Queue: 2 jobs
Job 1
Amino acid sequence: MRRLAMLGVVALSGCTAAPTGTAAREWRGAERKAMAGRVREEFRHAWEGYKRYAWGHDELKPLSREAHDWYSRPLLITPVDALDTLLLLGDREEAERTRAYIVENLSFDKDISVKNFEITIRVLGGLLSASQMMSDPRLLALADDLGRRLLPVFDSPTGMPYVYVNLKTGETSGAESNPAEIGTLLLEFGTLARLTGKSVYYDKAKHALTRLFERRSPIGLVGEVIDVESGRWVSPSSHVGARIDSYYEYLLKCWRLFDDEECGRMWRESIAALNRHVADETPTGLWYGPVDMTSGRRTAREFGALEAFFPAVLALAGDLDRARRLQDSAFSMWSAAGVEPDGFDYVAMRATHPAYPLRPEIVESAWSLHRATGDPRYLDMGRVFFDAIVTHCRTEAGYAVLEDVNTKRQGDLMPSYFLAETLKYFHLLFAPQDDIDPEKVVFTTEAHPLRRTW
Ligand code: DMJ
């Protein structure tokens, strides 16, 4: 099985994906429609579970059938994160009800210290995309109020944001941050600036991004942890996984969404450094694994579910050769245990961090590659991923993370991004939408489509 997985040939639940280099069988229209229908049904199942057991709260605990709030008071994270998925899946009535609830009940006037990055990508991003899709100024007003309360994070000596901010008092904390949390803000803050005419949002987030880029090593790489007060690197590990990942995604996407040439230049320089030092050509395929940011010395041979966003970014940038090969590698990672783990040793081909928290990245990459190539092989892959998730993660009350992909033991959480991202990308893969023009619409790291209306 391990050998088969290494070759990218895998059988799962009776479904196969064509081996690398082999032409996949074309899909019939009805087959694709049926898959899209299954995705809608499962979305409905997960959403109803949230509504029944956790409505008005941040997330669902599907095993104990209780609500989970991130802070002492809820911020409606799941409904805000999932609202544009309801719209994309065509459930307008449910979207209207959800919007009404959000507009009536969501207030950010709360004495709680929140994580700027998570609240930006899930809540600010969700409000912005829904405000555009529903042409609703009330959602934009909520986004503006939230943005204003988040702004104090940028008041550090370097301009790079603190990790936490109190929504009522503006008090900040957490000087040790990382490229993902510093560099994954500009799509949301920039869009807020464009839609409200308040350029401060763009300027602060862009300033943070460039200050971070300026601290790259002489070989063009960033590390994993940085102190935003001193500007010094705390961890020199460089890769495309947790704590760094979406920093690269936003360099490329901010260039595309805002025509910001400086972002384009930073992206081009960064991707050249990544391909030179982080890309790892091995007998098991192409991977991107950790190196030291200064010397480029390889420090581990590890990839994971988060890193699986990278084929999507490569495809968007036009590097289809690397995108395809990396997606094949990611597929072999998925196939080793029948579900991908958060950490994977790509020499031994086994999990190092065995959890699967319902992540979307590998599905996003299948969608992005299918959109770029039209190759039905990515539909096959999508079906393999979907069937496995339904088989192993479905519960009576919704969907559950896996604590261990080897044993398939479930854990008690349905993260909001499962509805915002994972199921959305499945649906887009099987039921593409003509009105999502890649030249005009950019998906945030949380899969919120932002439209270039300016
Ligand atoms: C999401 O919240 C976002 O995609 C983020 O950029 C990374 N982690 C999760 C999904 O895995």
Job 2
Amino acid sequence: MSNELYNVLARVTDGLYEGIAIGGDVYPGSTLSDHVLRLNNIPQIKLIVVLGELGGRDEYSLVEALKQGKVSKPVIAWVSGTCAKLFKSEVQFGHAGAKSGGDLESAQAKNKALEEAGAIVPTSFEGLEPAIKIAFQKLVEDGVILPTQEIVPPSVPEDLSSAIKSGKVRAPTHIVSTICDDRGEEPTYAGVAMSTIIEKDFGVGDVISLLWFKRSLPRYCTKFIEMCILLCADHGPCVSGAHNTIVTSRAGKDLVSCLVSGLLTIGPRFGGAIDDAARYFKDANDRKLSPYEFVESMKGKGIRVPGIGHRIKSRDNRDKRVELLQQYARSHFPSVKYMEYAVIVETYTLSKASNLVLNVDGCIGSLFLDLLASCAMFSQQEIDEIIEIGYLNGLFVLARSIGLIGHTFDQRRLKQPLYRHPWEDVLYSKYV
Ligand code: ACO
């Protein structure tokens, strides 16, 4: 009702000084006459417009004030709800108080009383607008009101999201994303709905297949991915990543800091040689280099063969992870030619030193080449792109995060104090 009345006032006067909505509730905090008398004392206000409702007797306080001549400014009033008389029984209108309790509380009775007390009362709500217009113009003619100049309101720019929705504009996008869409009822991974992922019992390997490779790889491939994750999840507290995480946890840092400090050690020497192993093994195999030519050419360039060598594993102390992955691939992959190439490279490097074994990075790197080349789901261009971008270290990063988080919790559980490396374990020397 307030909005409607302000709209009427905006159309036929030069503006509204103050609008207040009172009543409507059974126990309002102030009365109509309180406000009309207050507004009557404000010099800038020249005309008072009242919109009442059937029910209650508040308008009679205004009737009394008018009768007693307490209101010097013209009052235009209309009490809505005249239609209540058309109903046979009592009707509850919108507000708690808007209920015609008896004849005196009817809209008709209140309009009549207001008119008799001197208010300008139209014959219907529709009559309110012309009544206000006439009264306003009269006050202008009498010089009581000097109309203020109409200001053209600044136009509000169209809301971008509604303009896009209605197809009127096309906003430039700042991010392109092709792996996941969360705009529908449920998010999708490469077009596969989350409910499907659950219904079809997808595993982590399937989700990696969707989010990294943007396709559903066959189960033997996703199982291989899962094996890589399981087997690389941890390798004891002494390796670079776990050591860093343990030291950070003992320094009282939060989980993410502990995890990140461990992850930051992953690189060409520790866990991050999978991509390079895949690159070099692929190149050497595709160029049909003999192991001798390959290893010696790398030596000539001063580059260690990625995927070869281990700190503790050796010819007589084989890495179980490598054996398990090789066994699985030999019995499930259509072809393991890259892995076999890596194995003959290993035979050659082992002839040089017993710790120059095919390590887990080299095993995963070469087997992933086999997976990509033999599952018939990737074009040559896509394989080159995967190797070029370097997806495969992601497997180690993801896997090892599991272990690093475990080490963080382990240190906390054990309430381990701040770590300090023992002096006796450091060679203090001026001559190195
Ligand atoms: N290719 C060729 N020669 C090698 C290689 C290699 N990959 N690794 C070691 N050697 C040689 C060294 O040149 C060295 O010979 P030199 O003294 O005549 O120069 C000798 O073997 C011993 O080297 P070390 O540095 O003592 O070997 P270390 O045991 O410290 O290194 C490491 C282990 C870091 C893994 C090393 O073998 C390497 O850099 N490999 C390539 C990177 C790699 O595959 N990293 C992943 C490891 S697996 C994992 O982290 C999960």
